[in-house]
Fold each of these.
Amino acid sequence: MIATVTGVLADRSGETVVIATDGGVGYAVTVPVGVLERLPRAGQRCSLFTELVVREDGWTLFGFDRAVDRAIFQRLLLASGFGPKLALALLSNLGGERTVRAIQGRDVAVLSTVPGIGRKKAERLILELSDRFADIPVAAGPRSGSAAEEAQRALLALGFPPAAADEAVRSAVTAGPADDAATLIKRALQLVSTPKTGGTR
């Protein structure tokens, strides 16, 4: 099993990156959108936790910058009718923590926002996996009716992907106290518009 890949980021195409190892082997690794955004520029070193999925039509190596996201990906593959493409879509659109919270909270509406996952698939995912993530630590989401939840809904309405809206609001809350959604929304928009260091491509 290929558990990790470390080397130089040689190329990227869509959701697939090529990591050239020190031994001269280049691994094509498919990653969620969030991981793709956090990877360094081409030519810089990086390391990914990987999961090799073997199917009749080929072998695919999937990569994650956090071990917990790989664990979540592995659990998602346990659900009947859920292959790596749907698991990757969940992590790309919702992120690992939000995916787990949605499954544990039986939030069909959130899961159904992911392309390829309708209501029936979301219900099956909840039925089969709601008790499979007890050992995976995830941060609590915004309380229902809270300013954070309202800010998150506003960012979704502005076109932010669920995972990006969740991360932006979480960062805004961490940055300092805010008693109303308007303050959180403004702060979140300022944070996402500020270029991140080390991730420029």
Amino acid sequence: MTNEHLLNRALGAYLGFACGDALGATVEFMTPKQIQKRHGVHRNIIGGGWLGLEAGQITDDTQMSLALGQAIIDHMDWNIEAVADNFVTWLASNPPDIGNTCRRGIMRYRDSGELYGLPRDDDAGNGACMRNLPVVLATLNRPDLFRLWSLQQSHITHNNPLSDAATLTLGLIVKHLITLGDSDACQQESDALLNQYSQFSYTPYLGKASAYIVDTVQTVLHYFFSTDSFESCLIATVNQGGDADTTGALAGMLAGAKYGVQQIPDRWLKQLDSAVAVNIRRQTTELIKLTQL
């Protein structure tokens, strides 16, 4: 695959992620029936929601991803302390939203210097999985580093086998889509996850879209594999409600990597916070360069 195609799919993944975050935030914590009653089919980035966001504003999903990506770029390599320091700086910025598990892990590092918490059953949320895309982009041709960096950044806040497995699986799917555009390889990664942890099975889809990593992954994989365009994937995902900013972001990441940046609707790209879009384009270029060193 040429560098142009690689960058196209990588940009599709990162910008798709942010669009899914901004689109889904409007209907976060709502049920499908509540969404239908208020919005019909929610299909435009309009802000609002329980956070009262401006149209195009993003949440912790994209903000933490950008913090992680910047730490990699600043060091032109991996520095886990820099990642954790960026998370502390982000926490101090009074973000619009932060999950309890993320807050607990970042505060532990801030107050004690401990980078990794002990394994916990209640660390099985989606907060580590949601921010791992910059690691994927920086390690496209370095599978050993992909695994190491992914798990290290995850364990700052989430140390749980289900969270680990989901973070690695979605990262590998994105890698296959960006580098090869290989849908068969994506299905194989999904099957491998289900063979290891059968609770991730999404057939039949049970309609749960909470922040529990199993619900999140079931929702994302169900709609990714059952739709045929970026827009249809994202709209179907966020209209399931629940933790819609994160399910929307992760679905946008996969669909963007599959279909490319040109398939993201212009109305969404134009509505996305312009400073965020510029930062994502810059980071994507820089992170892809690291892959080629």
